[in-house]
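Key result, reporting period 2: structure in, sequence out.
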């Protein structure tokens, strides 16, 4: 299920990516240390599919036969990259990776809440690596825990990936 708990953050991320795709505006949203080739690739990556757009072809996805390979592939995603997420209706739609961090496993409302590092007690909470995706222009979000990455996340095929 999609959540809009993090909608202010999501809308901030979206507004930054909808501006001119010049290097200056993108560089404020891309993690520090991203080189020019990577910046160019991310810029092209952003234009291939809009947020929430359904995959046009399986050829646009990187598909792995084993769950372990699919989890590894998903783990390669960087903040602000797009990927396809499997939705409850079975469709694969484009989403934006807004954040990734270790999140509590067994606490109330972990399914719909993204905890900041200040909210997490590393000594008493069991944690699992998770990804927070923005799934549409309204800022709705979806959290996917690592154990589900292989089933629900597919990277978008880039021209050089073939």
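The corresponding designed sequence is given below.
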């Amino acid at each position: 299920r999609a959540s809009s708990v993090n909608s202010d953050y999501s809308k901030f991320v979206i507004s930054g990516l909808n501006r001119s795709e010049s290097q200056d505006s993108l560089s404020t949203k891309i993690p520090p240390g991203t080189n020019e080739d990577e910046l160019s690739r991310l810029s092209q990556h952003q234009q291939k599919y809009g947020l929430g757009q359904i995959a046009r072809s399986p050829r646009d996805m990187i598909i792995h036969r084993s769950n372990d390979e699919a989890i590894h592939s998903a783990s390669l995603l960087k903040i602000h990259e797009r990927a396809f997420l499997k939705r409850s209706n079975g469709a694969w739609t484009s989403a934006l990776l807004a954040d990734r961090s270790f999140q509590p496993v067994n606490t109330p409302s972990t399914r719909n809440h993204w905890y900041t590092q200040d909210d997490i007690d590393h000594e008493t909470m069991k944690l699992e690596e998770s990804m927070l995706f923005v799934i549409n222009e309204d800022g709705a979000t979806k959290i996917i825990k690592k154990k589900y990455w292989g089933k629900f996340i597919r990277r978008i095929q880039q021209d050089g990936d073939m």
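The longest helix spans residues 36-48. The two ends are 32 Å apart (CA to CA). This case is discussed further under Risks and Mitigation.
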